[in-house]
Each structure stands twice: as structure tokens, then as C-alpha cells.
Design a protein that fits this description.
By secondary structure, the chain is an alpha+beta fold. Helices cover 30% and strands 30% of the residues.
Length: 283
């Protein structure tokens, strides 16, 4: 049987919600998030990278284009993916960034966060969600992933389009930058709350943070910088963008964001934001 919500808890949450959604308040949620410093979450620099990101079916076409475009000149053979290999996509260029245009691997726009009314789901358990990237008056307009990437592909020469010729394998490699922008997305916190015996204070523990978005609301801009020839660099960039734009690749990126937001660092940061605001509001 589901426990009835504590009326004191509901009062705390209702007051907190009104303040966090009021742009004139010192407790406006975007302000609180932007001011957070341990760790800094606007922007949030991701530690390490996302290696061997799962890519979608579009990668098959991308593999064919990469191999054909980098194939050594020949009148009798052409480049194909070796043994059906698909591109390996590493975000943050796991092997090391060698091009001068490298940018930090980071989440930008977490502070553009409009809270929904929190729900008490069972006694002292709380579900609180917020929409990202929809506050038009906030200086940071959208929620983005920014960073570097590398794409590696195994290829070979073939004269029949199916079988690799012996000793003809080669491995094209490209590095560049990407910016993935969400038109909208949703972050949700599952938390528990403890009201002091005298009903004067509330302490919230954030147990889980999750992230959800429709792949259709994610657009990606990609530029390859590591290839000297401008014509092939443009072709490789377009191919890389096709791989990023695939629904399966996007879903994998969304899953990685959810894992990142649920890291202990970010959970503790949002927990501090909430509890500091509660102490400021209620003493």
C-alpha cells in the first residue's frame, strides 16, 4: 500500500518549486545550477571519453564511403570494408587529439533547466523532473554535447566487391570536432526526503539522475580536421555526420549522457544545490 505524502514535506516542496521557477528569485534553478562550483556543472567537463560508441545502421553506408574514398588508385580493384567492419566512433578522441582545433569534451546548457512540479511518489520519496534547453530568456540557449571525436575504419582492396585481396588491408583514421544540440530533453531526479522531528527543516538525498530525449530532437554538426586534402576532408566530414545522425548512434549518446549525469559528482552537486536552497529558504 502506498504511503500518504507528509503534508509538511508537500509544503516544503511546493514553496521550493515556486521559488526555483521564479526568474526574479535568488533561488531560480538556472541561477543555482550555474553558480555551482564543486564540481562546476556549467559547463560540465566530462572526465575521460566515450570509447567505441555504439553506432547505428547508417554506419554500414559510412564504412563503404570511407573505404571507397580512401582506396589506393587502381584500375582493377576498389576499397570495401574489411570483413564487413563498421566505423569505430570514439568521442573525445580516446587515442589522443593531434589537431589544433581540439575543444573540451563537455556538457553545456545544464543550467537551462525549467523544473516541473515535484511529485511525492511514496511517503518520503520524490520524483523531480526538469526540461532542458527551452528557457528562451536564459543566456545559454540549448543543451549540447561538445567535444572531439575519432573515426577508425578497417578497409581492403577488392575486385569483386565482396572478397578482400590478400595483403591489401588499410585503416583510414579521421579526427575532428562535433557539437550535438538538443531541441529539448528531460532530466529526472529520484530522491528521498527527511523532515526533522520538529518539522522545521528538510534534507533531500538524490539517489538517481536520469536523462531522456527523442533522437529526432538531436542535431549534430561535425567537422573533420585531421585530413589534409580539402575535397576528401569535406567528404569524410559528411560521412561522419551521417554516422552521428543515425538514430542508433543518437540513442547511444543519450544513454551515455544519462550515465554521466548519474555519476556521483553530478548527483552530489545537485543534492548540494537543493539542500543549500532549502536551508536558505527555511533556515
Amino acid at each position: 500500500m502506498t504511503a500518504s505524502p507528509d503534508p509538511i514535506l508537500q509544503f516544503f516542496l511546493s514553496t521550493f518549486y515556486k521559488k526555483t521557477t521564479d526568474p526574479t528569485s535568488d533561488y531560480y534553478l538556472p541561477k543555482l545550477v550555474q553558480q555551482q562550483s564543486n564540481p562546476v556543472v556549467e559547463p560540465y567537463v566530462i572526465d575521460g571519453g566515450w570509447p567505441d560508441l555504439k553506432v547505428g545502421p547508417q554506419a554500414v553506408t559510412g564504412a563503404q564511403m570511407i573505404c571507397a574514398g580512401t582506396s589506393p588508385p587502381s584500375k582493377t580493384s576498389f576499397g570495401i570494408p574489411a570483413d564487413g567492419a563498421i566505423p569505430i566512433l570514439n568521442l573525445a578522441s580516446i587515442s589522443g587529439v593531434s589537431f589544433p582545433q581540439a575543444i573540451p569534451f563537455q556538457l553545456v546548457g545544464i543550467s537551462n533547466m525549467l523544473a516541473d512540479p515535484p511529485l511525492v511518489t511514496d511517503g518520503d520519496n520524490i520524483s523531480a523532473s526538469a526540461t532542458l534547453g527551452t528557457i528562451g530568456s536564459w543566456p545559454i540557449k540549448s543543451f549540447q554535447i561538445q567535444g572531439n571525436f575519432s573515426i577508425d575504419q578497417r578497409c581492403c582492396q577488392s575486385d569483386d566487391g565482396t572478397t578482400c585481396l590478400i595483403g591489401t588491408q588499410y585503416a583510414p583514421h579521421g579526427e575532428g570536432t562535433f557539437i550535438a544540440t538538443f531541441a529539448k530533453a528531460k532530466a529526472t531526479a529520484q530522491a528521498s526526503a527527511t523532515v526533522s522531528p520538529d518539522g522545521s527543516t528538510l534534507v533531500v538525498t538524490v539517489n538517481q539522475l536520469s536523462f531522456a530525449a527523442d533522437p529526432a530532437d538531436l542535431s549534430v554538426a561535425v567537422v573533420i580536421y585531421s585530413i589534409g586534402d580539402p575535397t576528401w576532408r569535406d567528404t569524410y566530414s559528411k560521412t561522419a555526420q551521417q554516422i552521428f545522425e543515425d538514430k542508433g548512434t543518437k540513442q547511444s549518446m543519450i544513454g551515455q549522457i544519462s550515465d554521466t549525469l548519474n555519476s556521483p559528482n553530478i548527483r552530489s552537486s545537485f543534492q548540494a544545490v537543493i539542500n543549500n536552497a532549502l536551508r536558505g529558504l527555511f533556515g
